[in-house]
Design goal:
It is a single chain. Helix content is 36%, strand content 23%. The protein has 269 residues and is an alpha/beta fold. It has two domains: 148 residues, 3-Layer(aba) Sandwich (Rossmann fold); 107 residues, Dihydrodipicolinate Reductase, domain 2 (2-Layer Sandwich), CATH 3.30.360. Helix 1 crosses helix 9 and helix 6 runs parallel beside helix 7.
Protein backbone atom coordinates (compact mmCIF):
# COMPACT_ATOMS: atom_id res chain seq x y z
CA UNK A 1 0.00 0.00 0.00
CA UNK A 2 2.83 2.41 0.90
CA UNK A 3 4.29 2.16 -2.62
CA UNK A 4 1.08 3.31 -4.28
CA UNK A 5 1.01 6.83 -5.80
CA UNK A 6 -0.25 9.33 -3.24
CA UNK A 7 -3.05 11.66 -4.35
CA UNK A 8 -4.04 15.06 -2.96
CA UNK A 9 -7.63 16.16 -3.58
CA UNK A 10 -8.23 19.91 -3.53
CA UNK A 11 -11.66 21.35 -2.80
CA UNK A 12 -12.33 18.28 -0.67
CA UNK A 13 -15.78 19.39 0.51
CA UNK A 14 -17.14 19.94 -3.00
CA UNK A 15 -19.17 17.41 -4.95
CA UNK A 16 -16.25 16.42 -7.16
CA UNK A 17 -13.85 16.46 -4.23
CA UNK A 18 -15.96 14.03 -2.20
CA UNK A 19 -16.52 11.80 -5.22
CA UNK A 20 -12.79 11.65 -5.91
CA UNK A 21 -12.06 10.77 -2.29
CA UNK A 22 -14.58 7.92 -2.47
CA UNK A 23 -13.09 6.59 -5.71
CA UNK A 24 -9.54 6.76 -4.40
CA UNK A 25 -10.67 4.85 -1.32
CA UNK A 26 -12.07 2.12 -3.56
CA UNK A 27 -8.97 1.95 -5.77
CA UNK A 28 -6.11 -0.52 -5.40
CA UNK A 29 -3.86 1.62 -7.64
CA UNK A 30 -3.42 4.75 -5.51
CA UNK A 31 -3.98 6.16 -2.03
CA UNK A 32 -5.30 9.40 -0.56
CA UNK A 33 -2.51 11.29 1.21
CA UNK A 34 -4.27 14.61 1.78
CA UNK A 35 -7.57 16.44 1.49
CA UNK A 36 -7.20 20.18 0.96
CA UNK A 37 -9.61 23.00 1.71
CA UNK A 38 -9.37 26.79 1.82
CA UNK A 39 -8.27 28.58 4.97
CA UNK A 40 -11.11 29.06 7.44
CA UNK A 41 -13.23 26.22 6.07
CA UNK A 42 -15.19 24.26 8.70
CA UNK A 43 -13.65 20.96 7.57
CA UNK A 44 -10.03 22.00 8.20
CA UNK A 45 -8.68 19.95 11.12
CA UNK A 46 -11.29 17.21 10.80
CA UNK A 47 -10.77 13.67 9.54
CA UNK A 48 -12.02 13.72 5.94
CA UNK A 49 -14.07 10.55 6.39
CA UNK A 50 -15.85 11.98 9.43
CA UNK A 51 -16.39 15.34 7.69
CA UNK A 52 -18.05 13.47 4.82
CA UNK A 53 -20.40 11.76 7.29
CA UNK A 54 -18.71 8.35 7.26
CA UNK A 55 -15.97 6.53 9.16
CA UNK A 56 -12.54 8.01 9.85
CA UNK A 57 -9.96 7.57 7.06
CA UNK A 58 -6.91 8.76 8.97
CA UNK A 59 -6.48 11.79 6.68
CA UNK A 60 -6.95 15.21 8.28
CA UNK A 61 -8.28 18.04 6.10
CA UNK A 62 -5.60 20.74 5.76
CA UNK A 63 -5.19 24.19 4.26
CA UNK A 64 -1.40 23.87 3.76
CA UNK A 65 -1.09 23.03 0.07
CA UNK A 66 2.68 23.06 -0.35
CA UNK A 67 3.27 20.82 2.67
CA UNK A 68 0.97 18.07 1.36
CA UNK A 69 1.98 18.48 -2.30
CA UNK A 70 5.54 17.63 -1.32
CA UNK A 71 4.32 14.31 0.14
CA UNK A 72 2.28 13.34 -2.95
CA UNK A 73 2.75 12.12 -6.51
CA UNK A 74 -0.36 13.80 -7.95
CA UNK A 75 -2.88 16.55 -7.24
CA UNK A 76 -6.44 16.44 -8.60
CA UNK A 77 -7.99 19.88 -8.77
CA UNK A 78 -11.60 20.83 -9.50
CA UNK A 79 -11.76 24.24 -7.80
CA UNK A 80 -11.76 27.85 -9.03
CA UNK A 81 -9.48 29.58 -11.55
CA UNK A 82 -7.75 31.66 -8.88
CA UNK A 83 -7.13 28.65 -6.65
CA UNK A 84 -5.98 26.48 -9.56
CA UNK A 85 -3.38 29.02 -10.69
CA UNK A 86 -1.93 29.02 -7.18
CA UNK A 87 -2.00 25.23 -6.99
CA UNK A 88 -0.26 24.99 -10.38
CA UNK A 89 2.71 26.99 -9.10
CA UNK A 90 2.94 24.89 -5.93
CA UNK A 91 2.58 21.59 -7.81
CA UNK A 92 5.35 22.71 -10.17
CA UNK A 93 7.56 23.48 -7.20
CA UNK A 94 6.84 20.04 -5.71
CA UNK A 95 7.28 18.38 -9.17
CA UNK A 96 4.00 16.44 -8.92
CA UNK A 97 1.40 15.67 -11.57
CA UNK A 98 -1.35 18.31 -11.53
CA UNK A 99 -4.70 17.21 -12.98
CA UNK A 100 -6.89 20.25 -13.67
CA UNK A 101 -10.63 19.97 -14.20
CA UNK A 102 -11.30 23.61 -13.28
CA UNK A 103 -13.18 25.62 -15.93
CA UNK A 104 -13.76 29.34 -16.52
CA UNK A 105 -10.04 30.19 -16.73
CA UNK A 106 -8.89 33.37 -18.49
CA UNK A 107 -6.03 33.67 -20.97
CA UNK A 108 -3.91 35.12 -18.15
CA UNK A 109 -4.75 32.13 -15.93
CA UNK A 110 -3.81 29.73 -18.71
CA UNK A 111 -0.51 31.53 -19.32
CA UNK A 112 0.40 30.92 -15.66
CA UNK A 113 -0.57 27.26 -15.99
CA UNK A 114 1.63 27.03 -19.10
CA UNK A 115 4.54 28.42 -17.09
CA UNK A 116 3.99 25.83 -14.36
CA UNK A 117 3.98 23.05 -16.97
CA UNK A 118 7.63 23.81 -17.70
CA UNK A 119 8.47 22.17 -14.38
CA UNK A 120 5.90 19.39 -13.90
CA UNK A 121 3.34 17.43 -15.94
CA UNK A 122 -0.11 19.03 -16.07
CA UNK A 123 -3.16 17.26 -17.46
CA UNK A 124 -5.86 19.85 -18.15
CA UNK A 125 -9.21 19.23 -19.82
CA UNK A 126 -12.60 20.91 -19.91
CA UNK A 127 -14.07 17.45 -19.49
CA UNK A 128 -12.48 14.24 -18.23
CA UNK A 129 -14.93 11.70 -19.68
CA UNK A 130 -14.06 9.23 -22.43
CA UNK A 131 -17.32 9.92 -24.27
CA UNK A 132 -16.83 13.68 -24.41
CA UNK A 133 -13.28 13.31 -25.68
CA UNK A 134 -14.51 11.01 -28.43
CA UNK A 135 -17.16 13.64 -29.22
CA UNK A 136 -14.42 16.25 -29.42
CA UNK A 137 -12.48 14.19 -31.95
CA UNK A 138 -15.62 13.59 -34.03
CA UNK A 139 -16.46 17.30 -33.93
CA UNK A 140 -13.10 18.21 -35.40
CA UNK A 141 -13.47 15.57 -38.13
CA UNK A 142 -16.98 16.67 -39.14
CA UNK A 143 -16.05 20.37 -39.08
CA UNK A 144 -13.11 19.63 -41.37
CA UNK A 145 -15.35 17.73 -43.79
CA UNK A 146 -18.07 20.40 -44.08
CA UNK A 147 -17.78 23.94 -45.42
CA UNK A 148 -19.28 27.16 -44.06
CA UNK A 149 -22.68 26.36 -45.60
CA UNK A 150 -23.08 24.46 -42.33
CA UNK A 151 -23.54 26.70 -39.31
CA UNK A 152 -22.04 25.22 -36.14
CA UNK A 153 -23.92 25.63 -32.87
CA UNK A 154 -22.85 24.13 -29.55
CA UNK A 155 -25.71 23.72 -27.09
CA UNK A 156 -24.86 22.82 -23.50
CA UNK A 157 -27.00 22.24 -20.42
CA UNK A 158 -25.93 22.04 -16.76
CA UNK A 159 -27.34 22.24 -13.24
CA UNK A 160 -28.39 25.60 -11.83
CA UNK A 161 -25.34 25.82 -9.53
CA UNK A 162 -22.86 26.14 -12.41
CA UNK A 163 -21.26 29.58 -12.39
CA UNK A 164 -19.52 29.79 -15.80
CA UNK A 165 -20.89 29.80 -19.34
CA UNK A 166 -20.21 28.51 -21.90
CA UNK A 167 -19.03 25.41 -20.08
CA UNK A 168 -15.43 24.27 -20.33
CA UNK A 169 -16.64 21.30 -22.36
CA UNK A 170 -18.54 23.55 -24.77
CA UNK A 171 -15.42 25.63 -25.29
CA UNK A 172 -13.38 22.46 -25.82
CA UNK A 173 -15.85 21.40 -28.51
CA UNK A 174 -15.74 24.88 -30.03
CA UNK A 175 -11.95 24.72 -30.20
CA UNK A 176 -12.19 21.34 -31.93
CA UNK A 177 -14.65 22.71 -34.49
CA UNK A 178 -12.45 25.75 -35.11
CA UNK A 179 -9.37 23.56 -35.54
CA UNK A 180 -11.29 21.43 -38.02
CA UNK A 181 -12.03 24.55 -40.06
CA UNK A 182 -8.55 25.96 -39.68
CA UNK A 183 -9.63 29.11 -37.83
CA UNK A 184 -9.17 30.62 -34.37
CA UNK A 185 -12.19 30.19 -32.09
CA UNK A 186 -11.84 33.70 -30.66
CA UNK A 187 -12.30 35.12 -34.17
CA UNK A 188 -15.55 33.23 -34.91
CA UNK A 189 -17.31 32.92 -31.54
CA UNK A 190 -21.00 33.89 -31.46
CA UNK A 191 -22.48 33.78 -27.95
CA UNK A 192 -24.56 35.74 -25.45
CA UNK A 193 -27.29 36.59 -27.95
CA UNK A 194 -30.07 38.86 -26.69
CA UNK A 195 -32.35 41.37 -28.41
CA UNK A 196 -31.94 42.49 -32.02
CA UNK A 197 -28.65 40.83 -32.85
CA UNK A 198 -28.83 40.83 -36.63
CA UNK A 199 -28.35 37.84 -38.89
CA UNK A 200 -25.84 35.18 -38.00
CA UNK A 201 -22.44 35.70 -39.61
CA UNK A 202 -21.33 32.98 -42.02
CA UNK A 203 -18.62 30.78 -40.51
CA UNK A 204 -19.29 31.71 -36.89
CA UNK A 205 -19.40 29.05 -34.18
CA UNK A 206 -22.31 29.67 -31.86
CA UNK A 207 -22.82 28.80 -28.20
CA UNK A 208 -26.08 28.37 -26.30
CA UNK A 209 -26.13 27.68 -22.54
CA UNK A 210 -28.99 26.18 -20.52
CA UNK A 211 -29.00 26.12 -16.70
CA UNK A 212 -31.54 24.26 -14.62
CA UNK A 213 -32.26 21.65 -11.98
CA UNK A 214 -29.68 18.93 -11.44
CA UNK A 215 -28.56 18.38 -15.04
CA UNK A 216 -25.12 16.77 -14.85
CA UNK A 217 -24.03 17.75 -18.35
CA UNK A 218 -25.45 17.61 -21.86
CA UNK A 219 -23.65 18.75 -25.01
CA UNK A 220 -24.88 18.87 -28.60
CA UNK A 221 -22.81 19.97 -31.58
CA UNK A 222 -25.18 20.90 -34.39
CA UNK A 223 -24.09 21.38 -38.00
CA UNK A 224 -27.04 23.09 -39.69
CA UNK A 225 -27.36 23.81 -43.42
CA UNK A 226 -30.28 24.46 -45.73
CA UNK A 227 -32.40 21.30 -45.72
CA UNK A 228 -30.32 19.19 -43.32
CA UNK A 229 -28.72 19.01 -39.88
CA UNK A 230 -26.11 16.78 -38.29
CA UNK A 231 -26.19 16.57 -34.49
CA UNK A 232 -23.47 14.98 -32.36
CA UNK A 233 -24.56 14.47 -28.73
CA UNK A 234 -23.17 13.43 -25.37
CA UNK A 235 -25.32 13.06 -22.23
CA UNK A 236 -23.78 12.60 -18.79
CA UNK A 237 -25.97 11.16 -16.06
CA UNK A 238 -23.37 10.46 -13.36
CA UNK A 239 -20.53 12.74 -12.23
CA UNK A 240 -18.42 9.68 -11.44
CA UNK A 241 -17.39 9.61 -15.11
CA UNK A 242 -15.45 12.85 -14.56
CA UNK A 243 -13.89 11.63 -11.32
CA UNK A 244 -12.86 8.33 -12.93
CA UNK A 245 -11.27 10.19 -15.83
CA UNK A 246 -9.37 12.52 -13.51
CA UNK A 247 -8.05 9.60 -11.48
CA UNK A 248 -6.98 7.84 -14.68
CA UNK A 249 -5.14 11.02 -15.71
CA UNK A 250 -3.35 11.25 -12.35
CA UNK A 251 -2.06 7.70 -12.69
CA UNK A 252 -1.19 8.10 -16.38
CA UNK A 253 0.94 11.14 -15.64
CA UNK A 254 3.27 9.41 -13.18
CA UNK A 255 6.10 8.75 -15.64
CA UNK A 256 5.56 11.77 -17.89
CA UNK A 257 7.97 14.63 -18.48
CA UNK A 258 7.04 18.23 -17.62
CA UNK A 259 4.55 19.66 -20.09
CA UNK A 260 0.88 20.20 -20.64
CA UNK A 261 -1.30 17.26 -21.66
CA UNK A 262 -5.01 16.63 -22.13
CA UNK A 263 -7.39 13.70 -22.00
CA UNK A 264 -6.72 12.91 -25.64
CA UNK A 265 -3.18 12.09 -24.57
CA UNK A 266 -4.37 10.07 -21.57
CA UNK A 267 -6.80 8.06 -23.69
CA UNK A 268 -4.42 7.66 -26.64
CA UNK A 269 -6.77 9.48 -29.02
Amino acid sequence: MSDLPGIVVTGASGRMGQMLIQLIGESDKCKLVAALERKGHDWVGQDIGVAMGSTALGVIVTDNALEVFEKAQAVIDFTSPQATVGFAALAAKARVVHVIGTTGMTDDDLAKVDAAALHAPIVRAGNMSLGVNLLTKLTKMVAAALDEDFDIEIIEAHHHHKVDAPSGTALMLGEAAAEGRGVSLKDVTDSGRDGITGARKRGDIGFSAIRGGDIVGEHDVMFAAAGERIVLRHLASDRRIFARGALKAALWGQDKSPGQYDMMDVLGL
